[in-house]
Amino acid sequence: MKSARLTAPAEVGSIRRLFFIGNRGRLELLERAEEFMRLALEEARAASDQGEIPVGAVAVKDGLVIGAGHNRREGAQDPTAHAELLAIQAAAKAVGAWRLSGVTVYVTLEPCAMCAGALVLARVDRVVFGTRDPKAGAVGSLMNLAQDPRLNHRMEVVEGVLAEECGATLKAFFKRLRRPGAG
Ligand SMILES: [Zn+2]
After folding, report:
1. Catalytic residue (one of 43, 84, 110, 165)
2. Looking at residue 145, what is its pLDDT?
3. What is the per-residue DSSP string for 86-128?
4. Which is it for strands 103-109 and 126-131: parallel, antiparallel or unpaired?
5. What are phi and psi of 140, to 5 degrees?
6. Is 164 part of the annotated catalytic residue set?
7. 33: nearest Cα among 160, 131, 135, 121
């Protein structure tokens, strides 16, 4: 085994996975993925500011954000007001169609079963998430609704983009909650 070129920088865990696929298109995708994940993180912080569990999402088509959302379960008192659902609802409104072909959804946390199901129904091309949700994730953790051959649509899944930041945002939120006297 020649260590021909152990190029690999990969400062971030997230980069590593795609980097080793070694395909240029992939790298470009990843660079953009981080850019869009930062927008999803901004959404997550907006949720946090409102006392909501910080999860944010953006829907992107042709390099443009066509929908964004953040968790609003408490504020809306709506169990379905998850970031991804709100983002694809906004996207469908923006394009005037329920079918979101060509759309990538970036979300800070692995989608739950409801959201993964909705992404399948919306026929999105790809879902990119930051950190895994071992308790409720339905795109690899507990199940994988995004790539179930029994369903009539499957999408590409990319995980681990800005995973640390996405995870840290959640951790900081829960830490604050636990602190006595915290608002
Ligand atoms: Zn969800």
Report:
1. 84
2. 98
3. HHHHHHHHHHT-S--TTEEEEEEE---HHHHHHHHHTT-SEEE
4. parallel
5. 135, -35
6. no
7. 160
Residues 12, 23: contact at Cβ < 8 Å?
A: no
Sign, Cα dihedral of 69, 73, 76, 79:
positive
Per-residue pLDDT tens listing for the chain (183 residues): 333 333 333 333 333 344 434 455 666 667 789 999 999 999 999 999 999 999 999 999 999 999 999 999 999 999 999 999 999 999 999 999 999 999 999 999 999 999 999 999 999 999 999 999 999 999 999 999 999 999 999 999 999 999 999 999 999 999 998 876 655
Pairing outcome for strands 126-131 and 156-159: parallel
How many Å lie between the centroid of ligand 1 and the Cα of residue 2? 45
Q: 6 C-alpha vs ligand 1 centroid, how far in Å?
A: 39
Residue whose pair of structure tokens reads 């994940």 in the numeric block: 37
